[in-house]
Amino acid sequence: MTPWHFTTWLDLFDHWQTGIAGFLAFAAGFGTILVTMIIARRQIAASREDADRVIAVTREQTKVIAKQTATTVHLERQRAAGERYAFHATIWAAMERVLLEASEAKSKFLSAGANENTTTSKQAYEARRHFSKGAFPELRAACVRYGGRITRDLLELERDIDNFASRDLGSREEGRWGIAAISALLHDLACMRGS
Amino acid sequence: MGYSGDIGVAPRLGLHEGFLDQLGTIEAKATTLHGEALTGMERAKAVLVETDTSEQ
Question: Are B19 and A128 in contact (CB under 8 A)?
Answer without folding.
Answer: yes
